[in-house]
């Protein structure tokens, strides 16, 4: 009888453990695994997505490298767009760049969202992080943050034929066109910043700080978390007001 009771207790514990595993992850688990969280207040529900480290694309980065996997971010963006209870998206950026096609794919998805979106650059929004920063409907940057603007790089075997350089030129045009379309900078000014030769010690391009990024027309406003959230809430209120009027 005692053995049966003990076995019954153990089976109950196993069921409890299995049910916990099958349950949806908590906010802490979501932050740890995906770098995102949804916050709720009386006025609105905002999903915050953090894009940090290096943007991982088709090739897996070493385990010691801090990275954001684009295959994790894509379904999150779809979920934010589709879930009616989520009112807006806040994107916080501190990235060195990474895979060009993966970063541009994420930027295109964000720019195509119908819900209010605001980006905030902290620390750095370098390389392919520039299109990600401008992809939101409103962009903010803290004064101490920096952004590196440079031409497309490639690694691995490069075949020395005109087609290889044509491919790089077309890739650069795709990125530049996206930045110009989603910001206030002119194509001529962006190209000039990209091809500067006396700014970087071992590279070509330009590093600009937060205030300069706004002056150049890349980013909309200088501000931090409070300003970014207030702007997003204002956009959410306006969006709800339009829906009610319709």
Task: Describe this protein's structure.
The chain has 246 residues and is of the alpha/beta class. The chain has one domain: 2-enoyl-CoA Hydratase, Chain A, domain 1. Helix content is 47%, strand content 22%. It contains nine helices and nine strands. The strands form two sheets. Strands 1, 2, 3, 4, 5, 6 and 9 form a seven-stranded mixed β-sheet that branches. The chain has a two-stranded antiparallel ribbon with strand order 7-8. Strand 5 (117-125), helix 5 (129-134) and strand 6 form a beta-alpha-beta unit. Helix 3 runs parallel beside helix 4. It is globular and about 60 Å long. Mean pLDDT is 86; it is low at 17-25.
Keywords:
single chain; 246 residues; alpha/beta; seven-stranded mixed beta sheet; 9 helices; 47% helix
Q: Tell me the series of helices and strands, N- to C-terminal.
A: HHEEEHEHEHEEHHEHEH
Structural class, judged by helices and strands? alpha/beta
Average pLDDT: 86
CATH homology-level superfamily: 2-enoyl-CoA Hydratase, Chain A, domain 1
Number of helices: 9
Rounded radius of gyration (Å):
22 Å
Shape: globular
Span from first to last CA? 68 Å
Can you name the CATH architecture?
Answer: Alpha-Beta Complex
Reading off the top of the CATH hierarchy, the class is best stated as Alpha Beta
Stretches with pLDDT under 50, minimum 5 residues: 17-25
Q: β content, as a range?
A: 15-25%
Main beta-sheet annotation: 7 strands, mixed
Give the tally of β-strands. 9
Helix content: 40-55%
């Amino acid at each position: 009888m005692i053995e049966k009771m003990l076995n019954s207790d153990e089976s109950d514990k196993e069921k409890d453990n299995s049910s916990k595993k099958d349950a949806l992850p908590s906010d802490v688990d979501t932050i740890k695994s995906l770098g995102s969280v949804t916050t709720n207040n009386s006025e609105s529900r905002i999903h915050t997505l953090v894009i940090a480290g290096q943007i991982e694309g088709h090739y897996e980065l070493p385990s010691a490298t801090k990275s954001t996997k684009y295959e994790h971010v894509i379904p999150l963006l779809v979920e934010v767009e589709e879930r009616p209870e989520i009112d807006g998206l806040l994107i916080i950026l501190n990235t060195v760049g990474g895979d060009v096609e993966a970063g541009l794919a994420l930027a295109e998805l964000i720019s195509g969202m119908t819900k209010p979106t605001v980006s905030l650059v902290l620390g750095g929004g370098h390389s392919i992080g520039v299109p990600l920063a401008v992809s939101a409907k409103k962009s903010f940057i803290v004064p101490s943050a920096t952004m590196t603007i440079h031409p497309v790089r490639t690694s691995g075997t490069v075949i020395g034929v005109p087609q290889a350089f044509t491919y790089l030129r077309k890739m650069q045009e795709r990125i530049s066109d996206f930045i110009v379309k989603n910001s206030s900078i002119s194509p001529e000014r962006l190209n000039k910043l990209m091809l500067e030769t006396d700014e970087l010690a071992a590279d070509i391009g330009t590093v600009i700080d937060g205030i300069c990024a706004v002056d150049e027309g890349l980013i909309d406003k200088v501000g931090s978390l409070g300003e970014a959230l207030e702007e997003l809430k204002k956009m959410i209120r306006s969006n709800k007001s339009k829906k009610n009027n319709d």
